[in-house]
């Protein structure tokens, strides 16, 4: 078996511990099918220059590989799905899911024909909507945002229930790819599946530590999705507290990680207007009363909740600095959406220069992606320094998602 499948056991107890394994999807031909006519239905603000977006994404992956210490740690979702669809049971289940999920019914009419597809043909149809059949589905350009399709908590994986019709096939792809991986195929108890009627996307879940998670009640994750996730996490994992954070139900704030991300165990990059005077919405802490019942505690704001439950001081780093206009501009271009590859080592879009200025003031050494890779060259990454890496994302950022959105970590070190 290819080395890319050597290990995929979930283990996440922090947002910022050293990354060991991450699932990504470098944009492919599905991205080239976004047009002026369909972009809004596909949740895109603009059309991406595919080759440049691929170049930017591969550079991001090179950073991860350098810090992890090898290519095996960065796993392409398309490779995982290709392996899964080579398994007869997985292919049958995948087709069944495509047919049952298609509300228009056109896919179901060609169930038998899909059964005759090769794994490669079936994968192409799932990702692009294109085939020799007399039907056509929308492409899946949002597949590069693997974060939204699942969330690893401890040794469990919460599978998404996307909020929008444009993304239902993505959830089937991620679920099939993970559940039929050799490390997980015989471990169904590791997966948390949510009931129909609720919504949950992984961009709304942040793992504070091995006892606490935060989940955003956002445009994409419903209250019912949070309650169901909380019940299962509290019953089945080491998690003792689930903090619900209500944020405005607007596209610009679509997930919690668009307004708050951890850069280290005690630092968060945040969008100031939602945090300066306490977050503008409900903050509730859930814990277990046993038998599936939850105890709810109301907090004044997110900082109060973290201080009481996390038992350590948290420093908020303002996205965009202190100027309200800069804050709005840089939040829109994912200035709050940093991805921590190691404690205090983060990747963000270089266009958010005011945010990087603040990071520098807070003790981060700000470097370009090329500069970072050039500095380490053939040597292994090893640093106790705080480093903020500027990724060129002029094309990727058009898709309305930052480095955290494009990464679904499976495993980090425990300390």
Question: What would you say this structure looks like, in words?
Answer:
It contains 11 helices and 18 strands. Strand 6 (205-207) and strand 7 form a beta hairpin. The chain has one domain (3-412): 5-stranded Propeller (L-arginine/glycine Amidinotransferase, Chain A), CATH 3.75.10. Helix 2 crosses helix 6 and helix 3 (88-101) packs antiparallel against helix 6. The strands form 5 sheets. Strands 6-7-8-11-12 form a 5-stranded mixed beta sheet. Strands 14-15-17-16 form a 4-stranded mixed beta sheet, sandwiched between helices. It has helices at 50-68, 77-84, 88-101, 111-115, 119-128, 168-179, 223-236, 302-310, 324-332, 353-361, 369-376, and strands at 19-24, 74-76, 150-153, 156-159, 191-192, 205-207, 212-217, 241-246, 260-264, 267-270, 283-290, 293-299, 315-318, 339-342, 345-349, 365-368, 387-391, 408-412. The mean pLDDT is 94. It has 415 residues and is α/β, with parallel strands linked by helices. The longest helix is centred in the N-terminal third of the chain and has 19 residues, at 50-68. The protein starts with 18 loop residues before the first strand and ends with a strand. The radius of gyration is 20 Å and the shape is globular.
